[in-house]
Design brief:
mainly alpha, 0% strand
Length: 210
């Protein structure tokens, strides 16, 4: 009689164990794929620090009062030289004479004179390019026009200043109109000094003619 071999039956895994393993795998996958990236998180904005106005004051000085701050903000702006000038050159000095010379031509006892009025207009036109800050503008037209205006005023009401006015007009015609070399700068300063002196002299009331 043949011998029969009986092998023990292998137990199959529980289906619930397989389900639990599948859920665990899905949960792990969801965690790794859906978790937020730390690099994408915004760093919190730094808190703004407010500096008290008093802390800006120098040590030992009293803090500025609101009234003084208001007065400083409402103060009139300081006049600055026209663009293209350095504030001390011949161009800037000539432009400093522009307002008093035009006001002189508008003076009540002079503005009715056709020659004075014409020379005043010529001087304004000759210095317009300088006033606009044109670096290529020549100084010579302004020098000559200023001298001609002072000469017209002298001829109108100041006969005693005839020599000074004529000399200034001659000096203006000899200037190059540049302010680059030391020689040109010295000549321009000498002219402007004489022009200012003559302007001061004709600014005094005219002596009535006999």
């Amino acid at each position: 009689m043949a011998e029969l071999r009986i092998q023990p039956k292998k137990s199959s895994p529980s289906p619930w164990l397989l389900v639990a393993l599948a859920l665990l795998a899905l949960a792990a996958a969801a965690y790794f794929f859906l978790r937020p990236d730390p690099a994408d998180e915004r760093a919190p904005a730094p808190a703004a620090t407010t500096v008290a106005p008093d802390s800006l004051a120098a040590p030992g000085s009293a803090p500025a009062s609101p009234s003084s701050a208001d007065s400083a903000s409402s103060a009139a702006p300081v006049a600055s030289p026209p663009p293209g000038t350095n504030g001390t050159g011949a161009s800037a000095q000539l432009l400093q004479l522009r307002e008093p010379l035009t006001q002189l031509g508008d003076r009540a006892d002079l503005r009715d004179d056709a020659q004075v009025r014409e020379q005043r207009d010529n001087f304004t036109s000759a210095t317009d390019r300088l006033a606009s800050g044109d670096p290529q503008a020549s100084l010579r037209p302004g020098f000559v026009a200023a001298a001609n205006l002072l000469l017209a005023v002298q001829q109108k009401a100041y006969p005693q200043l005839e020599t000074d006015a004529n000399n200034l007009s001659l000096q203006a015609s000899q200037l190059s109109g540049r302010d680059a070399t030391p020689a040109e700068q010295a000549q321009n300063r000498a002219y402007l000094s004489k022009a200012a002196d003559l302007l001061k002299a004709v600014s005094e009331p005219a002596t009535p003619q006999p």
